[in-house]
Amino acid sequence: MGSDQFMTAAVLRRHGGPDVLELRDDWPVPRVGPGQVLVRVSAAALNNTDIWTREGAYGLPGRPEAKAGWRGPVDFPRVQGGDIAGTVQEAAADVPGTWVGRRVLVDPAFYADDREDAVPIGLLGSEADGGFATYVAVDAARVHDMSASPLSDEELASLPVAYGTAMGMLERARITSGETVLVTGASGGVGFALVQLAAARGTRVVALTSGSKAEALSEAGAAETVSRDADPAELRRRLDAAAPGGLDAVADVAGGPWLERLLPALRDGARWVIAGAVAGPVVTFDLRRLYLHNVSLIGSSMHTRSHFADLVELARTGAVRPRIAARYHLSDVHAAQDEFRRGAHIGKIVITP
Q1: What percent of the chain has pLDDT over 90?
Q2: Terminus of the chain with fewer CB atoms < 10 Å: N or C?
């Protein structure tokens, strides 16, 4: 595909409000480099990281209010979008030509080294151009063949960031069959993924959410739902009933006051894994409740190659099927982000170019 051709892309010019994300119809189609393929995007999905990257809401060490991407400065201009499903249109000379024409899911993570358990150090749509565009050029090593998957392209595109993050949380916290785990923010993208993936591995899920979304979470596999608006005494009573011996784990995407409120509900030796801070990034809690009860507090950012490979296998068999909350054309990316920010949806908001 010639470099003189152009495409539509949602391009971030700087940190700021919705106006800094420009919809361009004259953006150059990316040139395929060594080891890369060109993917024609069939679907992309929204995540918190898209909003936070635009706003520069990640802060810097010692400067929590500083404008920055999740790994620090962002190299503008940047095409956003970490969730990508599509079809390979072109392959570099050093990539097998058999990839051309294949339906694929793209792993959005950059890793620290070549190990299967290497930690992620970057993300498409943040450290490199992503999928809010007609085409994206990516390393062939990050595309996975989805020819046999029963999932639609929109469902596939809902998986990488949210379900990859959820898979990483469950694995890093060693959450297993027969345990009881509390999921905060359970109706959001990562929260809903946690409910589905944890239930699929035989874990008993207690979902913390607003009352209006309880039914959808029960259908997704939650054994019990608890309203986040319940008063502290009622919340503790419900959790004691759900896990009489204490919770085995908490999978938290909210942060904020929940750490202080819910730590007493954990059993000795429990794990608290956190991958988000939408309810507040700076928290206060009693450290004695942590060390006196041998509770592990685990930070989890996205997934490893191994975690993503496990997710790919679930996608190929259709063992987990994401819920699509809304669909938007790329030209309506601002409206899509606006609906995402309102948070009234359950599941994933998908964009098609």
Answers
A1: 78
A2: N
Residues 6 or more apart in contact with residue 8 via CB below 8 angstroms: 23, 24, 25, 27, 133, 134, 330, 331, 353
Give the count of beta carbons closer than 10 Å to the beta carbon of residue 74.
Answer: 21
Residue 285 backbone dihedrals phi, psi, to 5 degrees: -155, 165
Q: Provide the mean pLDDT of the chain.
A: 93
Looking at domain 174-299, which of 3.40.50.720, 3.40.50.620, 3.30.565.10, 1.10.1760.20 is its CATH number? 3.40.50.720
The phi and psi torsions of 224 (rounded to 5 degrees) equal: -145, 150
Q: pTM (2 decimals)? A: 0.92
What the block records as the tokens of 107 is 């792993």
Specify the length of the chain in residues.
353
204-231 burial, b at 16+ Cβ within 10 Å, e below that, comes to: bbbbbbeeebbebbeebbbebbbbbeee
Longest dimension (CA), the chain: 65
94-130 burial, b at 16+ Cβ within 10 Å, e below that, comes to ebeeebeebbbbbbbbbbeeeeeeeebebbbbbbbbb
Express each pLDDT in 334-345 by its tens digit.
Answer: 999 999 988 888
Long-range contacts of 53-60 (CB under 8 A, 24+ apart): 53/12, 53/78, 53/80, 53/125, 53/126, 54/12, 54/15, 54/16, 54/18, 54/20, 54/21, 54/80, 54/337, 55/15, 55/16, 55/17, 56/15, 56/16, 59/281
The answer to whether residue 193 scores a pLDDT higher than 80 is yes
Q: What is the DSSP letter of 18?
A: G
pLDDT band at 231 (very low <50, low <70, confident <90, very high): confident
Which ranges of the chain would DSSP assign to H, the alpha helix? 48-55, 153-157, 160-172, 189-200, 214-220, 232-242, 258-262, 287-291, 305-317, 333-342
pLDDT of residue 209: 87
CATH 3.40.50.720 spans which residues of the chain? 174-299
